[in-house]
C-alpha cells in the first residue's frame, strides 16, 4: 500500500524550506522599495542647495560631486534629514544582512526604528549633528570623523534618534566600494556591536543554522537538499537578475562559496568575541571607577537603604498585612532582599520595608542609564504598538486633538515620540527624575523636559495641561496618592488623566510567584488593584471613562520568568557591585545562559499564546484607565490620610 504523500514529507526540512523561502521573498520585496538616487539636476533645472549638509564617509570611500548633489536633492524632496547611501556594488552578504534588519517601506515612518545602513556614506543635516552633539573633528561613534564602517553604523544608529521620522536609505548608482572582502572577525564583531547586536549570540546561531542545514541535506533526502540548496542560492535569488537595484561585485563568489564563507565568518567572529567580550566598547576607566564607587558604598552594607517596616496599609490604614513575595534584586543582581506585603482588606500590595531615597538611587543606578542604558533603550524601543494603543485610547473621548500633553515618568520620551505620530498637532512635554528627559528634549521627542519629582511642579504647572499620562509610573513612586493629587492640580478643568499599571490581581502573579516580572523588585513600591485606583480618582473629582485590561497586557510573563530565574542562577559575572569574577564563575554563567536558550524560545511561544488569550478574555497582567477631571473638591497636596 502506497503511503499518503504527507507521510513522505520531511517536516523539519519543509519548515526550514518555507522559512528560507519567505525570507528570500521578503528580502527581494524590500530591495524593490529602496529608492535609487536620480541623476543630479542640471544648471537648467536649478542646482539643489548643498549648504547645511555634511557628507560623512568611511575610510577609502569617495563620493563624487554629482552624487552629493543628487543626494541633497533627494533628501530635500523627501523631507529627510539623514540619508544613508548604499553603494551599487554593495557586498552580497552585507546587503542581505541589511535587508533582514530594515523594511525600507516603513523605515522612515517608524519613529522607533533603529538607524541602519551600509556603513560607507551618510548625508546628514548640520542641525541634526548639532543637536546630537556630534563633534565634526572627533572620530568614533560620537564624532563625524569616522574612519571605519562600524563607526558610521554606530553614528547612524544615534542620528536616527534625532531624525526619528526623517531618516532614509537610497542606492547611489555611481558610488562604488569595489570588490570587498569579508571583514575580519574583530571588524565584523565591531560592526554587529555598532548595530546593537550581540556578536557572540549571532555567531552561535550561525553555527547552529549551518549544522541544521548540513544535517537536513545528509539525512532528509530531496527535502533536506532543497532547503540547503535554497540557502546556498539565496544571494543570487535576492540580488541577481537584470532588474535588481544593487549589483554586488562579489555576487557570483558569494553565492558559490556561501556555506564556506558563512562558516568562516562565524568562526572568526566567535574567536574575536572570546578574545574581546561583547561589552568591549565600554571604557575601561569608567568601569574601574564604577566598580570602586560601588565597593565603597557596599562597605557600609545595604540595611541602611531600608526604612523601618510599617505596620499599616498606606492605602486604607488596615493592619491586616501579610507577605506576598520576598525576593532579592533579580533585575541587576545587586545585594539586598525585599518584601512585598498585601493588605487583607483593600488588597493593596506595597514594598515593606520601603527603600529610602538613597536606596532608590542606589538600586536604580545603571539600570535605565549608565551601564544598562543601551539595553533599557532597546527594550523601550520595541514597544511601539503599545505606545500607539495608549495614545489612541483618548480618541473616542476627545472632541478635538489635545493642545498639550504631559507624560510623567517619560524616561527618554519613547511614548511621546510615537504619540506625536498619532496626535501631530499636540505639544508633548515630559517629566522624569533621570537625565534621559533632557536627552528627549534634545532629540525633539518632547518639547520641554522637566527633571525632578512630579509634586515639585504642582504649582508651576497648575492648570496647564489637557492630558496627563502616567504609564507604568505610579508603581515606582513613594506616595501614589500625592502623585494623583498633583495630576489633578496640573490638569485644566475637563482634562484627561491616563494611567497604566501592572495588575497585582493577575492570574500570572499567583502562578509564577516571585518569578512574575511585574513585581519588579526593588523598583516597584506600590501595586494597586483597579478598584482601589478608581476609588482614589473619584475622591479627586475624576470620572473614569474607560478601563482596559486585555489590551494593556504586556506579553512577557513567561519570558520574564525565565529571565529572572536565569539571573538568579547566573548573574552577570562582570557586574561592578559584585566581587571580581573567577574563570569558573564566568564559565558557569555562560553554561547556564546557554542552557536557558531553549527555555527562552519556549517561553516566547507561551507568551504569544497567553497574549492572544488575554486580548480575548480581557485578563492581562496590566490595566489602563482613562479619567476626566470634572471638578469638585480636591484634597490639598500633602494632606494627611
Summarize the structure in words.
By secondary structure, this protein is of the alpha/beta class. It folds into 3 domains: 30-179, no CATH class; 284-354, no CATH class; 370-629, Vaccinia Virus protein VP39 (Rossmann fold), CATH 3.40.50.150. The chain contains 22 helices and 15 strands. The protein has a 7-stranded mixed β-sheet with strand order 10-9-8-11-12-15-14, sandwiched between helices. Strands 1-3-2-4 form a 4-stranded mixed β-sheet, sandwiched between helices. It has a 4-stranded antiparallel β-sheet with strand order 5-6-7-13, with no helix packed on it. The protein is globular, with a radius of gyration of 27 Å. The protein starts with 10 loop residues before the first helix and ends in a 12-residue tail after the last strand.
In short:
This protein folds into 3 domains: 30-179, no CATH class; 284-354, no CATH class; 370-629, Vaccinia Virus protein VP39 (Rossmann fold, 3-Layer(aba) Sandwich).
Amino acid at each position: 500500500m502506497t503511503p499518503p504523500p504527507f507521510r513522505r514529507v520531511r517536516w523539519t526540512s519543509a519548515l526550514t524550506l518555507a522559512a528560507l523561502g519567505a525570507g528570500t521573498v521578503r528580502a527581494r520585496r524590500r530591495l524593490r522599495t529602496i529608492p535609487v538616487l536620480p541623476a543630479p539636476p542640471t544648471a537648467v533645472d536649478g542646482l539643489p542647495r548643498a549648504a547645511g549638509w555634511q557628507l560623512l564617509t568611511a575610510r577609502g570611500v569617495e563620493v563624487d560631486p554629482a552624487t552629493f548633489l543628487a543626494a541633497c536633492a533627494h533628501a530635500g524632496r523627501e523631507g529627510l534629514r539623514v540619508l544613508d547611501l548604499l553603494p551599487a556594488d554593495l557586498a552580497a552578504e552585507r546587503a542581505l544582512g541589511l535587508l533582514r534588519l530594515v523594511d525600507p517601506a516603513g523605515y522612515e515612518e517608524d519613529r522607533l526604528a533603529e538607524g541602519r545602513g551600509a556603513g560607507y556614506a551618510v548625508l546628514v543635516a548640520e542641525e541634526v549633528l548639532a543637536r546630537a552633539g556630534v563633534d565634526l573633528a572627533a572620530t568614533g561613534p560620537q564624532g563625524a570623523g569616522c574612519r571605519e564602517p562600524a563607526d558610521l553604523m554606530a553614528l547612524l544608529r544615534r542620528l536616527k534618534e534625532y531624525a526619528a521620522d526623517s531618516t532614509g536609505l537610497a542606492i547611489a548608482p555611481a558610488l562604488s566600494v569595489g570588490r570587498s572582502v569579508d571583514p575580519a572577525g574583530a571588524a565584523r564583531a565591531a560592526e554587529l556591536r555598532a548595530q546593537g547586536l550581540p556578536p557572540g549570540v549571532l555567531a552561535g546561531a550561525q553555527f547552529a543554522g549551518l549544522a541544521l542545514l548540513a544535517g537536513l541535506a545528509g539525512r532528509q533526502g530531496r527535502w533536506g537538499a532543497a532547503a540547503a540548496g535554497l540557502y546556498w542560492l539565496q544571494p543570487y535569488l535576492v540580488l541577481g537578475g537584470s532588474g535588481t537595484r544593487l549589483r554586488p561585485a562579489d555576487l557570483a563568489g558569494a553565492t558559490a562559496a556561501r556555506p564556506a564563507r558563512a562558516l568562516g565568518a562565524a568562526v572568526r567572529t566567535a574567536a574575536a568575541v572570546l578574545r574581546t567580550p561583547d561589552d568591549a566598547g565600554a571604557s575601561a576607566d569608567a568601569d574601574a571607577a564604577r566598580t570602586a564607587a560601588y565597593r565603597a558604598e557596599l562597605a557600609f552594607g545595604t540595611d541602611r537603604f531600608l526604612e523601618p517596616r510599617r505596620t499599616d496599609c498606606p492605602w486604607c490604614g488596615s493592619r491586616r498585612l501579610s507577605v506576598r513575595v520576598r525576593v532579592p534584586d533579580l533585575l541587576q543582581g545587586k545585594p539586598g532582599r525585599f518584601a512585598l506585603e498585601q493588605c487583607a482588606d483593600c488588597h493593596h500590595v506595597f514594598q515593606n520595608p520601603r527603600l529610602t531615597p538613597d536606596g532608590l538611587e542606589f538600586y536604580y543606578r545603571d539600570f535605565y542609564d549608565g551601564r544598562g542604558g543601551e539595553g533599557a533603550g532597546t527594550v523601550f524601543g520595541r514597544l511601539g504598538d503599545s505606545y500607539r494603543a495608549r495614545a489612541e485610547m483618548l480618541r473616542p473621548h476627545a472632541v478635538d486633538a489635545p493642545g498639550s500633553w504631559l507624560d510623567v515618568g517619560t524616561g527618554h520620551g519613547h511614548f511621546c515620540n510615537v504619540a506625536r505620530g498619532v496626535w501631530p498637532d499636540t505639544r508633548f512635554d515630559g517629566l522624569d527624575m533621570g537625565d534621559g528627559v533632557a536627552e528627549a528634549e534634545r532629540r525633539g521627542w518632547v518639547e520641554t523636559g522637566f527633571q525632578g519629582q512630579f509634586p515639585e511642579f504642582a504649582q508651576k504647572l497648575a492648570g496647564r495641561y489637557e492630558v496627563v499620562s502616567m504609564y507604568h509610573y505610579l508603581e515606582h513612586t513613594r506616595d501614589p496618592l500625592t502623585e494623583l493629587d498633583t495630576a489633578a492640580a496640573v490638569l485644566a478643568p475637563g482634562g484627561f488623566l491616563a494611567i497604566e499599571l501592572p495588575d497585582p490581581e493577575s492570574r500570572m502573579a499567583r502562578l509564577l510567584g516571585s518569578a512574575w516580572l511585574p513585581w519588579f523588585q526593588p523598583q516597584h513600591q506600590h501595586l494597586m488593584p483597579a478598584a482601589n485606583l478608581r476609588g482614589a480618582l473619584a475622591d479627586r473629582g475624576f470620572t473614569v471613562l474607560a478601563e482596559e485590561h486585555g489590551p494593556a497586557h504586556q506579553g512577557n510573563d513567561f519570558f520574564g520568568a525565565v529571565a529572572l530565574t536565569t539571573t538568579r542562577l547566573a548573574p552577570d559575572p562582570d557586574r561592578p557591585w559584585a566581587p571580581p569574577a573567577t574563570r569558573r564563575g564566568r564559565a558557569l554563567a555562560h553554561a547556564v545562559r546557554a542552557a536557558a536558550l531553549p527555555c527562552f524560545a519556549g517561553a516566547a511561544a507561551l507568551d504569544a499564546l497567553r497574549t492572544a488569550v488575554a486580548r480575548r478574555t480581557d485578563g492581562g497582567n496590566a490595566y489602563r484607565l482613562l479619567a476626566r477631571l470634572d471638578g469638585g473638591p480636591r484634597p490639598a497636596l500633602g494632606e494627611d490620610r
